[in-house]
Structures are given as C-alpha cells and as structure tokens.
Amino acid sequence: MDEQQETKNPVEIGEYKGRPIITLNPGERFPFSFGVNKAKLILAHLDDIKAFVEKYEKE
C-alpha cells in the first residue's frame, strides 16, 4: 500500500449527468469514478477500508 501512495496518479474532476464526479487513475486501464455521495460514504468508512486492505492485500 505504501508504494501505491508514493506513486499516486493525479485525479480528474468531471461531470456525469450534470453532477460532479472524481476519477482516480484517469487514463489507466481501470479508472475509478464516483460522486459526492459515494465520496462521503468512503470517508465515513475510511478506517474500515484501511483495515480491509491491510488484512487482504497479502493474498
């Protein structure tokens, strides 16, 4: 995980159906886009997401 954080790609802010979205890894094979509501959900569960990554990234 540390290696990914060090080589973090820029993000793109755009729009989908008139609503703002953010895209992680734009221009890559698997970009990841989401809007404000999902961003809030991710932020509310950031510790759970970090624990999930730490537990399963070794597999």
What does this structure look like?
It contains three helices and three strands, in the order αβββαα. The longest helix has 11 residues, at about 45-55. The chain has one domain (about 1-55). With about 60 residues, it is of the alpha+beta class. The two termini are about 15 Å apart. It has a three-stranded antiparallel beta sheet. A hairpin with a 2-residue loop joins β1 and β2 (about 20-25). It is flat. It has helices spanning about 1-5, 35-45, 45-55; strands at about 10-15, 20-25, 30-35. It is about 40% helix and about 25% strand.
Q: Tags for this entry?
A:
flat; 59 residues; alpha+beta
* Radius of gyration from the alpha-carbon trace, in angstroms: 13 Å
Relative helix content: 40-55%
> For this entry, what is the oligomeric state of its chains?
single chain
Helix/sheet category: alpha+beta
How many domains comprise the coordinates?
A: 1
Report the sheet-strand fraction: 25-35%
Unreliable residue runs: none
Mean pLDDT, rounded to whole units?
90
**Main sheet properties:** 3 strands, antiparallel
Secondary-structure element order, N to C: HEEEHH
The shape, in one word, is: flat
Total number of beta strands: 3
Order of strands in the sheet with most strands: 1-2-3
Query: Number of helix segments?
Result: 3
Distance between the first and last residues' Cα: 13 Å
Topology of this protein?
Elements: H1 2-6, E1 12-16, E2 19-24, E3 32-35, H2 36-44, H3 46-56
Antiparallel strand pairs: 1-2, 2-3
